[in-house]
């Protein structure tokens, strides 16, 4: 069953317009800066908000078609929702939390509890904790219960709002792997909101990037890294991204000009990997066409390399070896020569 | 610190300071005397420049209670002798009580007497909502005495705390008949007088009190109430003369 | 925690005066109480009548507050109408008004000649004033605001996403209310209910104005205290002690809800 969403709604300062599809068995992550509309989008899918315009459909079933049209309320949608802070019912124990969905659909108490026990076992919650109140559970345990609770209601669509945000870093790695495995067993479309790119990359097959209420890019992790279409996405995936105006093989970026291998005209984005930037203490001789002088703003050592942030007319990041850092005496304030080959610059129209 | 002390003193001064101008005497009067005594107080002020009384009219039991607990009143005017005796027994009276008026019970009904109430015996009618004062209130005591003498069993919807409460509830239409005094007649209400045989006479007494702030003014006001001028005012309010 | 410095002497003295203002009336009541005859005073028929009537009416008022106040609190907390601010003022009014004024207003509305009382009396052949039901209404009028405002605060403090989570699990609105919202606000609900009950138990002004004072029917404990004050002060003091004891017990039981952090 396929999720088709073409939704538009205004809520406070947010003006959201997004159109996307999610196939059965596919996991899509909504990523974007704060206030971009990720959670609002999720709520509209869950039926907690009505769309102003557009249409949300699950298979043949129309869930929302705007004012005056069809609207299936959340309790009748069959949508599983996992919140970042779990929102387990404090007055019910873990098993009754999971049994809540089946009970709401008219399953007898005994049967609902039996199913809940199975689900809790499936998500790996120790049997000794089935009768525990939410307050007694760790973040990871609560996360498992929340997932079991959503799945026990046998939804047709699974929505997760930053499912790993409330889990501490030490448990995160294992839980991420676990969650991925559980998601794989769910047959319907899955949509998750992720603030953390690593979560999104690890859990999702495809990323949807929302910025200012608009879908700016959709694609696999590889597609995004290879061709980020906005500064936000570039920052997210760690590549350099410059906005400029192209005329033939030259792109004007602010006061600077870069030579590129592709001939284009108009507004363009130039992206390139930090490794493509070379640093020198003196002006290099040879082929590179793009050479300029820039001050070092910051040096951030990583395990096997260092990220060097450059200021000046072309603010960007270079990645060099630790040996280069020592050799060039790279430190904030030091002036260096930077060079990028034209063939390394990926130019795309905006 | 000094500012705090000043503030405290100011508070106490506001709380305890004279709220009446000097020499105004505080008169405690049974609720049924309220209107008549307000008029008497006004006439008294005209007749005695520089002297003034302030009338506090309320249910008699409440006044007795306040006097028992030390209220600084200058004069007490009671709708019955029993309440006055209690005040005398408390040692609050500065003089022997003096009878100054009488009153008679009457039945208050809606204007035009739609329920055709004629006399005490109508109070036994089941279709009427009857209102008496509680037995601790003089009007309630008088009413019960009259009913007992006439051998009428009446069921009061409530034991009201003062005769004023009875009047206002008949005026609001909440009761069909209220037992009050002839002095409670109002233009917007009907009044059924009771025959002498089934009526009782309420004796009103007054006495200057000990422990007031203006005993001289209180004595002047007492003299004014029992004077010819005072009697005229009371008679205009339908009170009877002293026995 | 850093050690607290003692209050300046002047403030401490003022605080002591304030504390005494509350302690002394209670001490007066205890000192004047007819202890040897207390049992006999409380066993008197009119005392028993007043006590039973008070319990019945105050529980009735609490129940009425629950049945009518709960929907009102939900609407105030979760509704979107612009009228809410106005209604909240209306609900708060009885807490600020002198209860006697409330009683008069009730008469003008529900009395035999009242705005809605007249047609009701015409239709059902009876009116509320001077009846036990009238006592319940008068007490509920004064007491329900405590329940509504306490519960509304509790509902506002509750994360609305709990109800949304329940809905996403397939629960219809009634079931969400019953199985999630109400259990989660249970502390506020209970605190509000007990506050309303205690206020109803102590209600005087609106009751005597609207329902009158008749032994066994409308004369509740506070009214009995008032009636007995002049004629039998001992009975009045004994009745007052009962009210003080009940109020103290309620405050003790609810100290966690009402004085969070202070109940050490």
In words, what does this structure look like?
Chain A is of the alpha+beta class and 350 residues long. Chain A folds into two domains: 3-233, 3-Layer(aba) Sandwich (Rossmann fold); 239-349, OB fold (Dihydrolipoamide Acetyltransferase, E2P) (Beta Barrel), CATH 2.40.50. Chain A has helices at 38-46, 74-77, 94-104, 109-122, 139-152, 169-185, 197-203, 221-226, 231-237, 322-327, and strands at 3-11, 14-22, 27-31, 53-58, 61-64, 79-82, 157-161, 190-193, 206-211, 214-219, 240-253, 256-272, 277-280, 290-301, 306-310, 316-320, 335-340, 346-349. In chain A, the strands form four sheets. Chain A has a six-stranded mixed β-sheet with strand order 6-7-8-3-9-10, sandwiched between helices. In chain A, strands 13-17-14-15-16 form a five-stranded antiparallel β-sheet. In chain A, helix 3 crosses helix 4 (109-122) and helix 3 (94-104) runs parallel beside helix 5. The model of chain A has no long low-confidence stretch (mean pLDDT 88). In chain B, strands 1, 2, 3, 4, 5, 6, 7, 8 and 9 form a nine-stranded mixed β-sheet that branches. Chain B folds into two domains: 16-102 and 203-236, D-Maltodextrin-Binding Protein, domain 2 (3-Layer(aba) Sandwich); 104-201, Periplasmic binding protein-like II (D-Maltodextrin-Binding Protein, domain 2). In chain B, 37% of the residues lie in helices and 24% in strands. In chain B, strand 5 (130-133), helix 5 and strand 6 (156-160) form a beta-alpha-beta unit. Chain B has helices spanning 2-16, 34-47, 60-68, 81-89, 138-150, 163-171, 215-226, 228-236; strands at residues 24-30, 52-58, 75-78, 98-110, 130-133, 156-160, 177-181, 189-193, 201-208. Chain C is 77% helix and 0% strand. Chain C has one domain (37-258): Orthogonal Bundle (MetI-like fold), CATH 1.10.3720.10. Chain C is an all-alpha fold. The interface between B and C is medium-sized, with 24 and 25 residues.
């Amino acid at each position: 069953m396929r999720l088709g969403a073409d939704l538009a709604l205004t809520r406070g300062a947010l003006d959201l317009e997004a159109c996307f599809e999610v196939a059965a068995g596919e996991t899509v992550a909504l990523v974007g800066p704060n206030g971009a509309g990720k959670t609002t989008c999720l709520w509209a899918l869950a039926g907690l908000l009505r769309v102003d315009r557009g249409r949300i459909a699950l298979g043949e079933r129309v869930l929302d078609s705007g004012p005056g049209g069809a609207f299936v309320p959340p309790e009748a949608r069959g949508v599983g929702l996992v919140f970042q802070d779990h929102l387990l019912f404090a007055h019910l124990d873990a098993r009754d939390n999971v049994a809540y969905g089946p009970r709401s659909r008219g399953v007898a108490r005994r049967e609902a509890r039996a199913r809940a026990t199975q689900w809790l076992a499936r998500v790996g919650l120790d049997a000794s904790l089935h009768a525990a109140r939410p307050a007694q559970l760790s973040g990871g345990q609560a996360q498992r219960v929340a997932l079991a609770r959503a799945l026990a209601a046998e939804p047709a669509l699974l929505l997760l709002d930053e499912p790993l945000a409330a889990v501490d870093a030490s448990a995160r790695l294992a839980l991420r792997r676990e969650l991925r495995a559980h998601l794989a067993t769910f047959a319907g479309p899955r949509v998750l909101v992720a603030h953390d790119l690593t979560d999104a990359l690890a859990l999702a097959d495809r990323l949807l990037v929302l910025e200012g209420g608009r879908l700016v890019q959709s694609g696999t992790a590889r597609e995004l890294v290879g061709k980020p279409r906005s500064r936000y996405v570039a920052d997210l995936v760690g590549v350099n991204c410059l906005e400029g105006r192209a005329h033939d093989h030259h792109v004007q970026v602010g006061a600077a000009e870069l030579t590129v291998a592709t001939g284009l005209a108009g507004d363009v984005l130039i992206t390139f990997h930090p490794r493509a930037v070379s640093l020198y203490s003196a002006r290099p001789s040879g082929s590179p066409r793009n050479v300029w002088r820039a001050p070092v703003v910051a040096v951030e050592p990583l395990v096997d390399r260092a990220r060097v942030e450059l200021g000046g007319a072309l603010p960007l990041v270079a990645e060099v070896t630790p040996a280069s850092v020592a050799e060039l005496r790279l430190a904030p304030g030091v002036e260096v020569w930077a060079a990028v080959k034209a063939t390394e610059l990926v130019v795309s129209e905006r | 610190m000094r500012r705090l002390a000043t503030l405290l003193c100011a508070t106490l001064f506001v709380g305890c300071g004279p709220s009446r101008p000097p020499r105004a005497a505080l008169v405690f009067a049974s609720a049924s005397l309220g209107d008549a005594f307000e008029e008497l107080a006004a006439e008294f002020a005209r007749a005695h420049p520089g002297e003034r009384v302030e009338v506090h009219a309320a249910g008699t039991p409440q006044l007795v209670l306040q006097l028992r607990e030390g209220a600084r009143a200058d004069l007490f005017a009671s709708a019955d002798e029993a309440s006055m005796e209690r005040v005398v027994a408390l040692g609050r009276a500065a003089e022997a009580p003096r009878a100054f008026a009488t009153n008679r019970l009457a039945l208050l009904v809606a204007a035009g007497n739609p329920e055709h109430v004629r006399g005490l015996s109508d109070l036994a009618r089941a279709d009427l909502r009857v209102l008496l004062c509680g037995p601790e209130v003089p009007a309630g005591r008088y009413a019960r005495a009259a009913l007992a003498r006439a051998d009428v069993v009446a069921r009061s919807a409530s034991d009201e705390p003062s005769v004023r409460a009875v009047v206002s509830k008949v005026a609001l239409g909440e009761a069909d008949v209220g037992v009050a005094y002839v002095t409670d007649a109002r233009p917007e209400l009907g009044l059924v007088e009771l025959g002498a045989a089934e009526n009782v006479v309420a004796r009103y007494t007054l006495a200057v009190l000990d422990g007031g702030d203006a005993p001289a003014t209180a004595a002047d006001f007492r003299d004014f109430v029992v004077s010819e001028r005072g009697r005229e005012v009371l008679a205009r309010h339908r009170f009877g003369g002293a026995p | 925690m850093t050690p607290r410095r003692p209050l300046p002497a002047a403030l401490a003295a003022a605080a002591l005066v304030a504390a005494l203002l509350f302690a002394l009336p209670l001490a007066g009541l205890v000192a004047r109480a007819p202890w040897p005859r207390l049992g006999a005073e409380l066993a008197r028929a009119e005392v028993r009548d007043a006590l039973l009537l008070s319990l019945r009416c105050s529980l009735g008022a609490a129940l009425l507050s629950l049945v009518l106040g709960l929907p009102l609190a939900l609407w105030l907390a979760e509704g979107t109408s612009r009228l809410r601010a106005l209604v909240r003022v209306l609900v708060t009014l009885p807490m600020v008004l002198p209860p006697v004024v409330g009683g008069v207003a009730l008469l003008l509305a529900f009395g035999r000649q009242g705005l809605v009382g007249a047609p009701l009396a015409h239709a059902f052949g009876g009116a509320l004033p001077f009846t036990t039901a009238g006592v319940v209404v008068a007490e509920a009028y004064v007491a329900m605001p405590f329940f509504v405002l306490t519960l509304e605060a509790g509902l506002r403090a509750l994360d609305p996403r709990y109800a949304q989570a329940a809905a996403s699990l397939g629960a219809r609105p009634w079931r969400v209310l019953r199985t999630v919202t109400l259990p989660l606000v249970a502390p506020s609900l209970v605190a509000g209910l007990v506050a309303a009950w205690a206020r109803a138990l102590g209600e005087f002004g609106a009751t005597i104005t609207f329902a009158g004072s008749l032994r066994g029917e409308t004369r509740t404990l506070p009214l009995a205290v008032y009636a007995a004050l002049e004629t039998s002060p001992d009975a009045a003091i004994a009745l007052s002690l009962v009210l003080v004891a009940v109020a103290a017990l309620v405050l003790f039981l609810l100290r966690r809800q009402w004085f969070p952090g202070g109940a050490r």
